[in-house]
Amino acid sequence: MTLPATDGERGVYAISVAADLVGMGVQNLRLYEARGLLDPERTSGGTRRYSPNDLDRLRRIGDLLHAGLNLAGIGMVLDLERQNARLREEQEVPPWPTVVTTTRTPRSRKPTDSTKNSRPTPP
């Protein structure tokens, strides 16, 4: 059973529309997919469908290209960003329950009547 995609993950844009929205050429989108930087959804006929999340990723790729990175470097940066996001999520929700302990003040050790004069009796 597959879970329904959220709005940000559902592929709704054809490749030409996606290219126009992010200001890139269609061939660039195909190249980024071939290099593993992007994995758009496909229809049963094989047509690519780009989601809003894919468009955000394409914009990030464009920013990194403008910063001077090559496609191999961009792949590494995107992987590190994904790992970083996953680690941050793990920190927010610990996989085990949180145990809360309280501290009590120690009881005083004042001698009581029963212990003051008690000595073991000889056999």
Tally of alpha and pi helices: 5
User: Could you tell me the radius of gyration in angstroms?
Assistant: 31 Å
How does the major sheet shape up? Answer: 2 strands, antiparallel
H/E element order: HHEEHHH
Low-confidence stretches: none
Task: Give the rounded overall mean pLDDT.
Answer: 85
Strand order of the largest sheet: 1-2
Global geometry: rod-shaped
Textual characterization of the structure:
The chain has 123 residues and is mainly alpha-helical. It has five helices and two strands. Strands 1-2 form a two-stranded antiparallel sheet. It is rod-shaped. The N and C termini lie far apart (80 Å). The model has no long low-confidence stretch (mean pLDDT 85).
Labels describing this entry:
123 residues, mainly alpha, two-stranded antiparallel ribbon, 5 helices, 2 strands
Blueprint of the fold:
Blueprint: H1 15-22, H2 26-34, E1 41-42, E2 48-49, H3 52-66, H4 71-92, H5 113-116
Antiparallel strand pairs: 1-2
